[in-house]
Amino acid sequence: MAWDGALEELDSKAGLLRIEAHKKLVRYAQAVLHSDREELRFIWIGEKTRWMSIHIRAERANPSGARAILEIEDIEAPFSLTVRELDVLTLTAAGFGNEGIAVRLAVSQRTVTTHVENIFEKAQIWTRAGLAGMATDRGLLRLPTPGGSDSYPLGTGIIEQLTTTLKDIPPRKCRPVVRRPVLVGMPLSLAGRGMADAVEMLNGAQLAVEQINERGGVLGRELQLLTVDYDIGAEKSIVDAYTTLINSEVDAITAGYSCVEPAVQKLVGEFRGPYLHAATMDSVVERVRNDPSNLGNIFQVCASDVNYGMGLSRFLMELEQSGQWKSRNRFLVVLQPFWPGLNVGLAEIDRRLGREGWRIEVISDLPGEDANWVSIMEKLQRLDPSVIVLASYFYEDGIAFQKAFLSNPISALVYNLYSPSVPAYREELGEQANGVLWATTTGLYSDRIGNDFVARYKQRHGREPGQSHASIAYDRVNILAGSWSRVGNTRLFEKVVTDLRSTVHRGVNGSYFFGTDGQVGLAFPDDTNDPSISQAHLVFQIQNGDQRILSPQPYVNGRFRTPRWMIE
Question: Which of 59, 18, 40, 4 has the alpha carbon at shortest distance from 160?
C-alpha cells in the first residue's frame, strides 16, 4: 500500500479483497507510514468474531516510493481467550489497573478482576508485568483500542490517534538507507594479449548489470562490477588480481579464461563464494571433479576444450555426407601453440576420423605467442593437408596465421577454435576473413533472444557484440542475479552454490545446467541431445563479412561456401 492509500496486490487477490473490505486497516497502514514506526502488530476482530493477526511493515526506502506491507493471518484465539479477555489484556499491557479498565469498558471492577484471573490461568503467566510483556511481544493488542485510544500510551494507540489527523500531517520522510551494493568481481586482461576479448566480456557484463539495476537491483540493492586488470601471461599478476577482488569482499567472481593455474583455483576455493568462468578447459574442470569439497564453488559455464575434437569430427563428416565438400586426401593438420593444460580433443579426432580413413598430424612445438607463421606455412605447403585446424583461443594468433596463409595458400579448409568470434578478427582481416570456419562450445544464437541481445548491446555500446564472450559474460551476471534472488542473501555462499547446481538458466548463449560431474556446462549435441539443458557447439563460417552458423541443427542460418582460395 502506498502512503496515499493506493492498494496493490502482493501475494494474492484474496488478501487484497479482504483489506478493501476493512478500510480501517488501510488507515492504520497510512498512519504507520506517517509515523516514526517501522512496524505494527495487533489483533483485529472481524465479522462473526473472526480473529485476525495483522502485521504492518513500512518500506520507506522502496525505489518506487514509500509503501506499507500489510499482512493478514486468520488465527485461533491465543490461549483460548475471549474477545472481552483480549480487551482486558490490551488495557493491562498499557499499565491500566482494574479500576481504570472497568471505567474504559463500562463494566464492574469485579468483572475485570475475574477476567484478569482467567487470563492468568489461560496464559500461565502470574504477574501483570509478565502479561504486558507477552502481549506486546506477540502483538496481542486489539485495535480499535478498547474504550478508545485517548491516553493509551502504546504504539497501537498512538497509531490509532494518528489516523484522525492524517490529512494534516505530511508523509514522514525517512533518512536515506545506504546499503552496500552487491559486488561482482571481474578480472580482465585489458591492456595486453586478449585485450579486445576482455572488452567484449566487460561490455556484456555491464549491460547485464545496468538492466538488472533498472529492474530494482538484486534484493533491493544496487549491483556493481568491480574490475581488476592483470597480465594474462604472468601467474603472479593473475593471483594478485583475484586476491584484490576477494579482499574487497565481492559477492561472486565471474571471468573468462584466467583460472587455469592451480594456485588461482585454490585461492578461489578458499573464497567459497560462487565463481563462474569460461576457461573452456577440461584440466580446470578435472580439478573440481577430483576435489569437490574444496573447489565446489567453481563452475565452468561452458563445455570444455575436449569437445572441440568431437565437434570438428562431426562437422567434417556432415560436410562430406551432405556433398557440400569432399576431402582430396583425408589429411588433417592441427596447429597447437603452447597453452598450459590445453586439450582440444585430439584423441577424439583420431578415434572418430581415423576410422573413416583420415590421417592426423599435430604440430605442437609452437610458442605461446609470436609464432613464426611464415615458417609454419612453408611446412604446411610440404605437408599439403586438406584441413588445417588452428587450436588457439587468441584472436591475435588467428589474424597472424590467416595473413600468412593467404600470402601462400593451399587448397585446404581453415578451421579455427573460437578466436574469430571477436570482432577485431574480422575488422583487421576484412575480406581476408571470408571463408574461414570456426567453432565455439558457447556462442550467440541467432534466435529471438540472441537478436534482442544484439540490439540492446548495439544501442548501449554503439557496435554489435562478438559471437561468444560478450553474451556469455552477460549470461553469467544474470545467472548469479537469479540465484541470489532465489536464496534471498548474497552472502549465504553455500546456499547460493547449491542453488546454482540445481537450477537451469536460459540465456543468450543457450541453457546452463551445472548439476554435472565437475560442474561444467553441457554441449549440444555431443554431451546431450537435450537442448533445454545445454549450449550448442556452434560451427560458423565467415561469409561476406557476416557470421553464418553451419552446424548443428536447428541453429543453422547459412550453408557452407567453398573458400575463394580453394577455387582460384
Answer: 40
330 contacts 361 by C-beta, under 8 angstroms: no
In 3D space, the residue among 437, 423, 429 whose CA is nearest the CA of residue 465 turns out to be 423
Cβ atoms of 247 and 270 within 8 Å: the answer is no
Cβ atoms < 10 Å from Cβ of 69:
15
Q: What's the pTM?
A: 0.71
Q: How far apart are CA 479 and CA 503, in angstroms?
A: 10
* Distant-in-sequence, close-in-space partners of 66: CB < 8 Å, separation ≥ 6: 2, 3, 33, 58, 59, 60, 171, 174
Q: What are phi and psi of 300, to 5 degrees?
A: -95, 115
List of domains in the chain: 13-168 (1.10.10.10), 182-304+471-522 (3.40.50.2300), 307-440+538-566 (3.40.50.2300)
For residue 14, the model assigns a pLDDT of 56
Residue 31, C-alpha cell as written in the block: 498512519
Q: What is the pLDDT of residue 65?
A: 64
What's the Cα-to-Cα distance from 173 to each of 2, 6, 26, 160, 393, rounded to whole Å? 13, 18, 19, 20, 55
**DSSP secondary structure letter of residue 566:** G
Give the pairing of strands 535-536 and 523-524.
parallel
Helix axes 469-487, 195-214, angle to 10 degrees: 40
Residue type at position 73 = E
Q: Which three cell numbers stand for residue 209?
A: 548489470
The residue type of 110 is R
- Predicted pLDDT of residue 1: 44
pLDDT along the chain (568 residues), means of 10: 47 57 83 89 89 88 70 92 95 94 93 95 93 93 93 91 71 55 94 85 96 93 94 88 95 85 92 94 93 96 94 96 94 88 88 94 85 92 96 90 95 95 94 96 93 96 94 97 95 96 95 95 95 96 96 94 90
CA distance 267 to 253: 12
pLDDT of res. 568: 67
Say how far apart CA 304 and CA 298 lie, in whole Å. 14
Distances (CA, A) of 352 to 343, 348, 417, 504: 16, 6, 18, 31
How distant, in Å, are the alpha carbons of 55, 78, 136, 316 from that of 40? 6, 18, 10, 70
Q: Give the Cα separation of 26 and 36 in Å (integer).
A: 17
